[in-house]
Automatic annotation (TrEMBL):
UniProt protein name: Carbamoyl phosphate synthase large subunit
Domain of life: Bacteria
Lineage: Bacteria, Pseudomonadati, Bacteroidota, Sphingobacteriia, Sphingobacteriales
Similarity comment: family membership: Belongs to the CarB family.
Cofactor: Mn(2+)
Annotated transmembrane regions: none
Keyword Thylakoid: no
Cross-referenced Pfam families: CPSase_L_D1 (PF25596), CPSase_L_D2 (PF02786), CPSase_L_D3 (PF02787)
Cellular compartments per GO CC: cytoplasm
Chain ranges of the ATP-grasp domain: 133-328, 676-867
PANTHER family per record: CARBAMOYL-PHOSPHATE SYNTHASE [AMMONIA], MITOCHONDRIAL, CARBAMOYLTRANSFERASE FAMILY MEMBER
Organism: Sphingobacterium siyangense
UniProt keyword annotations, A-Z: Amino-acid biosynthesis, Arginine biosynthesis, ATP-binding, Ligase, Magnesium, Manganese, Metal-binding, Nucleotide-binding, Pyrimidine biosynthesis, Repeat
UniProt record, GO biological process: glutamine metabolic process; L-arginine biosynthetic process; pyrimidine nucleotide biosynthetic process
Pathway noted in the entry: Amino-acid biosynthesis; L-arginine biosynthesis; carbamoyl phosphate from bicarbonate: step 1/1; Pyrimidine metabolism; UMP biosynthesis via de novo pathway; (S)-dihydroorotate from bicarbonate: step 1/3
Length: 939
């Protein structure tokens, strides 16, 4: 059936600010769906309150509404536009819940809006635990024994009937919020209370816990002709008991028998067909008994999910793009396969490679947090790696994590205490994968590890083989490793750093040079979705060690953009927004734009975004070889956060041109001593400071600059390791902790300006002129990380004299640092005195917020300035903000109820929302302003 031509205008509901459990995978899905609908000539309106995303950018939709996700906001849009249909499946649980609320209020009916992509009744069936259970029973799909409970008494009765261990699953919640396992009767009452309170309908499912069973996910698409295809089968490395968002996952499934897979596939299709007549995407989760392959259904989500983004990147099949077209009436056989460009979308991808996803945790930001993983998701991001084998992809994923690991072990960070290792295997945290390897190295038998972890034996055998390879390698020296064995090591995912560590007394560069002598080179394979059965047209690549290289370097002038890796606190989606605009600007300037990144949730890793995408770790060895193959004009590092910036020195040493501000000047801004000397020379005030490399030096510096002092390591993002201390004892503890976690780092000690306000500026410099993008005043005082502060644009309480000084210092610093591109400066303001705290010559988390508030494509402008294609005077910049914009941080403390929620110099927020006000009398602003008064008085 061709598309429904009566649909001329569609509203897409976004997912709001990033929180744990609902991250930038919905930015990717929403952006892709919007562009897909625009291709059909449909007017697209988007509502979302997140300023840091591409989804809320004019390049994605015709009308963007940065409004709170409420029914009042929905009605405001429906009154302005003649909306024909609403697509609520691209914004996660938030969008679905809002769609139901609007439906219950009669909004869709009142404005004659059709819900597409899902059936509202289907949402009710899948989210209401009892309805879902009964439906599965009716269609003959197995489910765990369970009972619904709407009260404490009903829950107690259900537990008595089913028996322990149990799992509690609240209805209508996201990422397992409020859920958990109960192993003992004594713990049940508290767990039941948590679940009932977490559910908006005060309803939980009390269910038999199938701990240790295997877990699988299937991603499906269905059209109006009831055709259903399976896009991807994803197997969880970790068994049931760990939220799938916190689990390592693998595609395709590695340990399924064909019979079990066919049964699971048939059940998934039956389930999707049974929940309504909608056309679109769906995610189904199953559990499989490892003893007899009995299958039970866990849940079905009639929307794109976290796994949909992963499956899209894993297969090259753009699920959200096709789902959006199915929602407006197309059938699968009428749509084109986006990879081959010659076959239809009515096919199931076939992979000749292996995908591994590893979640990224940030427990260091939540001191005292319970790190044990369970039903409630705790990961803040994820990485994906592609390899020819499971073990190669696993090692590449470990290299992608941005946790300082060079692969799976063999890097000097192994645990050696057997009791601690075995406890970690039985009580999984984010590091369990590494501790499995540690256990094998200490000689723990495979069966003992399997019993402790309940991880399938096949995966454990793969990890155990690494230990045998490392024992073999230690027999050699670098100059006599047989070529075949060297090749095997590289095919198993070993980095040059790991090989150097295992050999001892050799460097990474020496290993690199030796393998080049032996002709062992990284080659690139195309992600083609059809195992090379049909020619692929899309330049989407991963690396491995074989003979044939499928990535042919063109003779065009090229720019490489380095991405920001996994999302984590302090480095989130705002840097992906920056990278995407960098790619678009480079293409507009006539360059071949090449992207390197490993985050499956993001828009930058959409194969349609760059001219060429390398889905690779942003890890030195991988980046170096891509540069050697492509020979770009230069590399952009200032858009990808600290991940990309850390590469700058090595790029400089290799003779690679850094586009924009030079490494020398970026390093000058990071080096507190040299930077303070520059401030002194420019006659710009700054807090008294000192630099220390030991606790003894730190005590001496602190007594010179005067307490209270701000203690922090150099070269970090998101306030990592920062603290404010008021005496020698606290200072000594802080410094010892920092040097333990970041050995060799210089410790910066600044006099802390108490009762000071904080403000910041962002600017662009082309070497001659400086344009102040925006100046913001923080609600919270100095001492609370800027990422955790509510910021108001433009300033509301700073005198004109103070603002003039901020502008003067910004211009002076931009020119003195010879900035080409972006510069973020943070200030402390005390009375009429303005002090510079720090300057960052790179993209910041505030630039997307300012760009959205003023409706100016600042990253695009900055990139063209960096490339030297334009000067600032070439642009006509017209700001459209009337009134004020407020950036408000959003936290995920509900995932860590046991931690201290007090804010300080180390960032803890996971996302942000934007709100516009007309004037300073707005009640929302007055409430924030009262908080500011309280903060300043409390100091």
């Amino acid at each position: 059936m061709p598309r429904n031509t009566s649909i001329k205008s569609v509203l897409i509901i976004g997912s709001g600010p990033i929180v744990i459990g609902q991250a930038c995978e919905f930015d990717y899905s929403g952006s892709q769906a919007s562009l897909s609908l625009k291709e059909e000539g449909i007017e697209v309106s988007i509502i979302n309150s997140n300023p840091a995303t591409i989804m809320t950018d004019k390049v994605v939709a015709d009308n963007v509404y940065l409004l709170p996700l409420t029914c009042e906001s929905i009605e405001e849009i429906l009154q302005k536009h003649n909306i024909d249909a609403v697509l609520p499946t691209m914004g996660g649980q938030t969008a679905l819940n809002l769609c139901i609320e609007a439906s219950n209020l009669g909004l869709w009916e009142k404005y004659n809006v059709k819900v597409i992509g899902v059936d509202v009744a289907a949402i009710e069936k899948t989210e209401n635990r009892e309805e879902f259970r009964q439906l599965m029973v009716d269609i003959g799909v197995g489910v765990a024994t369970s009972k619904i409970a709407n009260s404490f008494l009903e829950g107690k009765e259900a537990a008595q009937e089913i028996g322990y261990p149990l799992v509690i699953r609240p209805s209508y919640t996201l990422a397992g919020t409020g859920g958990g396992f109960v192993h003992r009767k004594e713990d049940f009452d508290a767990a039941l209370n948590r679940g009932l309170h977490a559910s908006p309908t005060h309803e939980v499912l009390v269910e038999q816990a199938v701990l240790g069973w295997k877990e699988f996910e299937l991603e499906l698409l269905r059209d109006t002709n009831d055709n259903v295809i399976i896009i991807c089968t994803i197997e969880n490395f970790d068994p049931m008991g760990i939220h799938t968002g916190d689990s390592i996952t693998v595609a395709p499934g590695m340990t399924l028998s064909d019979k079990c897979y066919q049964d699971m596939r048939n059940q998934a299709i039956l389930m999707m067909r049974s929940i309504g007549t909608f056309a679109g995407g769906c995610n189904v989760q199953f559990s499989v008994n490892p003893e007899n392959e009995e299958i039970i259904a866990i849940e079905i989500n009639p929307r794109v999910s976290r796994s949909s983004a992963l499956a899209s990147k894993a297969t090259g099949y753009p699920i959200a793009k096709i789902a959006a077209k199915l929602a407006i009436g197309y059938n699968l056989d009428e749509l084109q396969n986006q990879i081959t460009k010659t076959t239809s979308a009515y096919f199931e991808p076939t992979l000749d490679y292996v995908i591994v996803k590893i979640p990224r945790f940030n427990f260091d930001k939540f001191k005292g947090a319970n790190k044990e993983l369970g039903l409630q998701m705790k990961a803040v991001g994820e990485v994906m790696a592609i390899g020819r084998t499971f073990i190669e992809a696993l090692q590449k994923a470990c290299q992608s994590l941005e946790t300082g690991r060079a692969g799976l072990g063999a890097d000097g960070r192994q645990w050696r205490n057997l009791d601690e290792i075995m406890d970690s295997l039985e009580h999984p945290s984010g590091d369990r994968l590494f501790h499995i390897k540690d256990a094998f190295e200490l000689g723990v038998p495979l069966e003992s590890i399997r019993k402790a972890t309940r991880i399938d034996k096949w995966f454990l055998v793969q990890i155990q083989e690494l230990v045998h390879l490392e024992q073999e390698l230690r027999r050699y020296q670098l100059n006599n490793i047989p070529r075949d064995f060297f090749m095997t090591l590289k095919q198993k995912g070993y980095s040059d750093v790991q090989i150097a560590w295992l050999l001892g007394n050799v460097t990474e560069d020496q290993v690199y040079d030796r393998r080049k002598e032996l002709g062992i080179n990284r080659v690139y394979k195309m992600v083609d979705t059809c195992a090379a059965e049909f020619p692929a047209q899309t330049p989407y690549y991963y690396s491995t060690f074989e003979e044939e290289n499928e990535s042919i370097s063109s003779d065009k002038k090229k720019i490489i953009v380095l991405g920001s890796g996994p999302n984590r606190i302090g480095q989130g989606i705002e840097f992906d927004y920056s990278c995407v605009h960098g790619l678009l600007a480079a293409k507009e300037c006539g360059y071949e734009a090449i992207m390197v990144n490993c985050n499956p949730e993001t828009v930058s890793t959409d194969f349609n975004m760059a001219d060429k995408l390398y889905f690779e770790p942003v890890f030195w060895e991988h980046v170096r070889e891509i540069i050697e193959l492509e020979k770009p004009e230069g590399v952009i590092v200032q858009l990808g956060g600290q991940t990309a910036l850390k590469m700058a020195e090595r790029l400089e040493q290799l003779g690679v041109k850094i586009i924009g501000t030079s490494f020398e000047n970026m390093d000058l801004a990071e080096d507190r001593g040299r930077f303070s000397d520059l401030l002194k020379e420019l006659e710009i005030p700054y807090p008294r400071y000192g630099v220390a490399t030991s606790a003894e030096e730190a005590l001496q510096v602190a007594n010179e600059v005067g307490y209270p002092v701000l203690v922090r390591p150099s070269y970090v993002l998101g306030g990592q390791g920062m603290s404010i201390v008021i005496n020698d004892e606290d200072l000594e503890k802080a410094v010892v902790n920092l040097l333990k976690n970041l050995p060799g780092n210089h410790i910066l000690i600044d006099h802390f300006l108490d009762r000071a306000e904080e403000a910041e500026s962002d600017s662009i410099c082309d070497g001659e002129d400086v344009h102040i993008i925006g100046m913001m005043e923080h609600i919270e005082p100095a001492g609370i990380h800027s990422g955790d502060s509510s910021a108001v644009l433009p300033p509301f309480g700073l005198s004109q004299a103070v603002q003039d000084k901020m502008e003067e210092y910004s211009i002076k610093l931009a020119k003195a640092l010879n900035v080409r591109g972006l510069l973020n400066i943070q200030f402390a303001v005390k009375g009429e005195n303005v002090y510079v705290i720090e300057a960052n010559p790179r993209a910041s988390r505030t630039v997307p917020f300012i760009a959205k508030a003023y409706d100016v494509p600042y990253i695009n402008i900055a990139t063209k300035v960096m490339l030297g294609v334009n000067k600032l005077k070439d642009f006509t910049i017209e700001r459209k903000l009337k009134g004020y914009a407020i950036k408000e941080p959003v936290f995920s403390f509900n995932k860590f109820p046991e931690v201290d929620k007090q804010l300080g110099p180390e960032m803890k927020s996971t996302g942000e929302a934007i709100r516009f006000i007309k004037d300073l009398q707005d009640p929302y602003f007055r409430e924030l302003y009262n908080q500011k008064s309280m903060f300043l008085n409390a100091q």
